[in-house]
Design goal:
186 residues; mainly alpha; 3-stranded parallel sheet; two-stranded antiparallel ribbon; 8 helices; binds zinc ion
Length: 186
C-alpha cells in the first residue's frame, strides 16, 4: 500500500495543477466537500494554539489540522470547553456540516494503486488536514495522523518522511545487495 502525496496549489496565473490529485481545499458545495471547516486564523485554532503557547504560523496550522482530525473522529468534545465551544460555533456558522466518515474518506481517497494524491493551498512544510486525509486513506486513525501537541512532529508526516528516505536509500543499493536483502523494500 503506498500513501498518496500532498501537492501545494499555486494561485500564480497560469499555474498548472495535476489532474489526478483530489482537491481538498475549501469551496462551495461539492467542491468543498473535503475542505477543513477550521481556519488556521479562526477562533478555535487561535485558542488551541494559545493553549500550547504556539501562536505562530506552524502552531496555527497544527491547531487547525488537529481540529479537523478530532472533528472526523467525533472527538471535539474532548477538547477544553472554551476551545470545543469555539469549534462548534465555527461549525454552526457554516451550517453545521457533517464530518466525512473514515469509510467515506477511504472510499474516495484509496484507489487500486494505493492512496490518491491530494492538493491544497497549504505549504508543504506545515501541517494540513490533507495529511490527515492521506493518513486515514492509508489505514491510520484520524487522531494518530497528527500529534496531540504542536511541539512534537506529527505521526503520519514523520512516517512518510521515513518511508521516502528508505526508498531513496534502497535506490542506492546494488543489485547484489538487493538480492541479499530481499525484504528491504520498505
Ligand atoms: Zn491545507
Amino acid at each position: 500500500m503506498s500513501y498518496g502525496r500532498r501537492e501545494q496549489r499555486s494561485r500564480k496565473p497560469g499555474a498548472v495543477h495535476s489532474k489526478s490529485a483530489i482537491y481538498v481545499g475549501r469551496g462551495r458545495g461539492a467542491a468543498g466537500r473535503w475542505g477543513n471547516p477550521f481556519r488556521a486564523a479562526g477562533p478555535a485554532a487561535m485558542a488551541f494554539a494559545q493553549l500550547h503557547k504556539a501562536e505562530h504560523y506552524r502552531g496555527l496550522q497544527w491547531a487547525a489540522t488537529r481540529l479537523y482530525a478530532l472533528w472526523v473522529a467525533g472527538s471535539l468534545a474532548t477538547l477544553p470547553a472554551a476551545i470545543a465551544a469555539a469549534a462548534s460555533a465555527e461549525l454552526k456558522a457554516l451550517g453545521d456540516p457533517a464530518p466525512p466518515t473514515v469509510e467515506e474518506i477511504r472510499r474516495a481517497f484509496l484507489g487500486a494503486a494505493g492512496g490518491r494524491d491530494v492538493s491544497c493551498w497549504c505549504a508543504a512544510s506545515v501541517d494540513c488536514h490533507g495529511d490527515v486525509i492521506l493518513a486515514i486513506a492509508g489505514g491510520w486513525l484520524p487522531q494518530a495522523a497528527i500529534g496531540d501537541t504542536p511541539l512534537f512532529p506529527s505521526g503520519f508526516r514523520v512516517e512518510r518522511r521515513k518511508d521516502v528516505t528508505r526508498r531513496a536509500e534502497r535506490a542506492l543499493l546494488s543489485p547484489v545487495q538487493r538480492m541479499r536483502w530481499p525484504n528491504w523494500n520498505r
